[in-house]
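Fold this sequence, please.
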Amino acid sequence: MSMQEELAARFVFTGNGVQGIQDFRSRSPEALVSTYAQCLRVLHHPKITYSTALLVIAPELAIRFKEAGWSKQRLKDAIIAGLSLDIGMAWGEIKL
């Protein structure tokens, strides 16, 4: 085995690929944001302090936000708010 083959056999790329989001029921911006946030949440692992994702919204769904008067900033803020979990929800109710 050559050195190049040996190195290629040792290293594995652990990145993610395309993660499709399907929601055939949501029509309102609020419902779509909820779906986006829930799907984005599973792309992140709690032990990793930094991760990135690119969300691409199809034109036929983007029009729902435009018709409802949403700005890009409002959409971004709503998704970020939807990604936040309180500690009780994340780990079950904490009883003292």
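The chain has a mean pLDDT of 80. The chain is about 50% helix and 0% strand.
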